[in-house]
Amino acid sequence: MLFNSIDFMVxxxxxxxxxxxxVSRNLRMQNAFLLLASYVFYGWWDWRFLSLIVISSVVDYxxxxxxxxxxxxxxxxxxxxxxxxxxxxxxxxxxxxNFFLENxxxxxxxxxxxINPQGLRIILPVGVSFYTFQTLSYSIDVYRRRMEPTKDLLxxxxxVSFFPQLVAGPIERAADFLPQFSKKxxxxxxxxxxxxxxxxWGLFKKxxxxxxxxxxxxxxxxxxxxxxxxxxLLGAVVFAFQIYGDFSGYTDxxxxxxxxxxxxxxxxxxxxxxxxxxxxxxxRWHITLSTWFRDYVYIPLGGSQGSNWRRIRNTFIIFSVxxxxxxxxxxxxxxxxxxxxxxxPLLLLGRNRRNxxxxxxxxxxxxxxxxxxxxxxxxxxxxxxxxxxxxxxGDALGYLSRIFSGTLFxxxxxxxRRVLSMIGVLIVVEWMQRGREHGLALNGRRIPPLxxxxxxxxxxxxxxxxxxxxxxxxxxxx
Amino acid sequence: MRRFLLKTGLxxxxxxxxxxxxxxxxxxxxxxxxxxxxxxxxxNRAFQxxxxxxIALGNSRVLASLDRRILEEGVALKSANLGYSSADxxxxxxxxxxxxxxxxxxxxxxxxxxxxxxxxxxxxxxxSITGDLVLEDxxxxxYLFRYQPAFWRNWAKTVRERVAGGEGSGDYGSRQxxxxxxxxxxxFNEGRFEKVFPDHRAGVDALxxxxxxxIVSLCEAEQILLVMYTAPESREFxxxxxDRGRIRRVLNGVPETHRGVAYLDYSLGGGLYQxxxxxxxxxxxxxxxxxxxxxxxxxxxxxxxxxxxxxxxR
Lengths: 478, 314
Prior knowledge:
The structure holds two protein chains of two kinds. Helix content of chain A is about 65%, strand content about 0%. Chain A is mainly α. The longest helix of chain A has about 40 residues, at about 75-110. In chain B, strand 6 and strand 7 form a beta hairpin. The longest helix of chain B has 26 residues, at about 1-25. The relative contact order of chain B is 0.14.
């Protein structure tokens, strides 16, 4: 079920009412109902793939129980290995099998030994990269003794499948999120109201900004060989806002929805396009994935400790794996590597932790240095996004080479005024709100009710009438 | 909780009120805009005069094959051609329901163009005319869930266009009239066909089949004679259809089970097929000799009406 569908518009109020008015009396009923609602939510897309979630949940639950029953290091290691094999096995089979097979075939062909094995005719289960990482984090944390394993099967299943974040994150850590299923939730007015505001802003970003951007981006990327450099640059910039609106919009809806049910999800985006360098960008973009890779891959590899060679190696590993996580295509790997190249100079010069505060805090506008830093950082991410969006490496290189041709300074052939004005609204609102949690957060600020309700109604009408062509969420495919 | 529900309800209520006010504003004096997809004049005439004896429904095949004036002369029934280019059978259903909800006199005949791809979405869709139909008949909003998300998208598009103003983009009729009827018809393009129907099968979409059956039931309930017809198509196009037999069985089965339905099939293997008709076709399935075909259809329709006692025998 998509957040931007009419199905969800019916599903959410029904689940909300049953949750607070029917099953709110005890914790087990709350969790059982959340589990049921989550399975319905996921099964709406394809009920057969629910079995994968169940397998992943059962295995990690048993691994946790197994670890609690033994102190032997080897046994614990074997149990962790079982969790890794099952979760990464599911991911590998459904997401990467055909990719690696194709590359083997190509390698054999280049070596003069053509082979012709059959690929798998399977579709990628929605959200598989998200929930497998979430359950893996549980097994790893239990193995590292950072948390006690849960003995409550219902709580654990509800934690793995919690519908607001099941298919596209945020990727929650068991240590933070699982305990929330052990406490009976009570309705909190402030949380629910702010959750609704966050949902509304998420819908605006997804439906009004991202879906409208998609139309322009699809046209420009599909016919890049016929467009001028300036049009292609515009296409890449619009794509940067499409993917931001799409994914951060989804996250806002997910977090807001969770708050309606008395649950707190981790922040996943913190206005990344106002970053002053790439290191700051990665602290603000898809935060839960970045921190997952940091804690479970980068730090175990040695992190930024040790020799320069080791730091460079670790940086390249982490960014290329992050790229591959997004999809089984070389374009994603190159996207990751390009970001590694952007990041390395900051790391080696020890300047990667320079910008940890909010840009232009306490002032209305940034100074010229901050503006230049933000522009350069945004420009670098836009160039990298070309690899993310292109169908192949050849297309990406062709696209970039045409951007930097003689036609870069011509007038773009496509000037989507409506889309640009939507992006303008997004930038202005998020700039004003950059110190807050989301685009419509009030944080105690008082706005006259008439203005406030006018804004809410305006956004509702914009979502209903100014939406694009109903694109699926991009991150569902990852 | 009560405060939360009140506030949420207030925002939802305000948004709803704004929409109702907007709907009333837009539907007052509503007119169909001129477009390349349909005869806007026909729709305006139909929904303003509301006293037609015959209405024709379908996609571009009905627009290309049927000249309403010739039909009116031939069968002496006040007729309107409410076809819409690339429209699926759901659009035909919604058009019929909207018309029946406003008409002063229930039509005697509904002429529905059907073909091999009537139950397929590869080249037809729930087109944006549905937004305009909703402005004629608000009761159609009950289909919001049935046709989501296309239904709402069409409605939103209509609202945006109406609010922005501006003219339509030319009438389908004038575009058809510009065609030189004496020119050599384009041959069937197999490449294009395979792009749309890669396995040469149209299949039967469950929702479209339901809508088709709903048209049959609606006509039956209102005692309207439903005449389905398949316009001529090129031989190559007909032969390329792998599941032609299956679709034909569905269509042929309807008059067998419903007395108020007739089926006039001018395509290959159909009861009224003649090889000469294939020369009236351009490309794969669009009739270019609309004048000749409309005369032929009128005369067959007249026979059908006479057979059922709806017209006196000549």
